Amino acid sequence: MPKIVAVDVLQVDLAPKVPRSDAIQSFVTQETPMVRITTDDGVVGTGYSYTIGTGGSSVVALLADHLAPRLIGREADEIEAIWKDLFFATHATAVGAITALALAAIDTALWDSRGQRTGLPLWRLAGGAQRRVPVYSTEGGWLHLEADALVRESLQAKADGFKGVKIKVGRPSIAEDIARLSAVREAVGPAFEIMTDANQCFTVSEAIRRARHYESIDIAWFEEPLPAEDLGGHVRLSASTSIPVAVGESIYSLAHFREYLQREACSIVQADVARIGGITPWLKVAHLAESFNVSICPHFLMELHVSLTAAVPNAAWLEYIPQLDSIARSRVRIVDGFALPPDTPGLGIDWDFPAIDRMARRRHRIGGT
Fold this sequence. Notes:
The chain is α/β, with parallel strands linked by helices. The chain has twelve helices and 14 strands. The protein has helices at 56-67, 79-89, 97-118, 122-125, 147-159, 174-188, 204-214, 231-240, 254-262, 279-291, 302-311, 353-359; strands spanning 4-14, 30-39, 44-48, 133-137, 164-168, 193-197, 221-223, 245-247, 268-269, 295-296, 318-320, 333-335, 338-340, 360-367. Helix 5 (147-159) packs parallel to helix 6 (174-188). The chain is globular.
């Protein structure tokens, strides 16, 4: 079996393509920790994760100082064993975002390496369940946009073939939220999906109150209505509304997803491949959700999630937010409102390594010559 002989760790910062704001924060920059794993058969696997403006240097330090050195000499195809060993090696800092993001950068690189070695694209390697997944756009639904801009952006998304749009909610008054959502619904018609996202800004009572008002607009889901740690609040909210409650982008453990599903605290899971710790645990979340007859609609990172949603049978949507355009030559292929996974081996991302090298802010090499 191929053994790991070198690991490169670096960070690239990417500016958002449009201004992005929600109820609790603005998207300042995508700090992108990247890992390149070289094996003794000459294969180089590339993986990555992200932050939205803080913590990237901490992820890189954890990778360079503690995780990457443990990879040297390991058999690259023992992905499950490596993930578990690294998780327990950093058990004092897990479960949590920094550790999960570091693990994800390594895990995605290992899956990329396996795909290149076998000649299989990730979506086939990880299951091959479906050849296309419907896409919705988030890029025109940010909280700072007023109703006329939301309508314009939503109509453009519909004209471009998207099957739905996500609108951020959490304005100071219910009336503002309803005015924005109602304007979009009137413009796009009843057959076009509208997702909403509160980014954890509400109390339980306010979420229940707002959901009651949102119901008449027939939204596809109410995303992150409460802080992710408030499991009991999500139970109460889910029991009080007909709107599907979606959670997951801020959950960092398979066990936490299990608790949400067991308690019927959500009806859509949105596991983020970077924040859950990589492809290995993401697939476990997807199949766990499948066992509860629940869909998975992942958050962000569409260039990775396009393959993962095609790999599993219960993925219902891909979120469209382009972010790798300045460091990758490939683009997510969308036909008639459906995303098609790439058929190139591994992750299917055609990295622009000269651009990455120019933009790299931090760089470490472990092993090699």
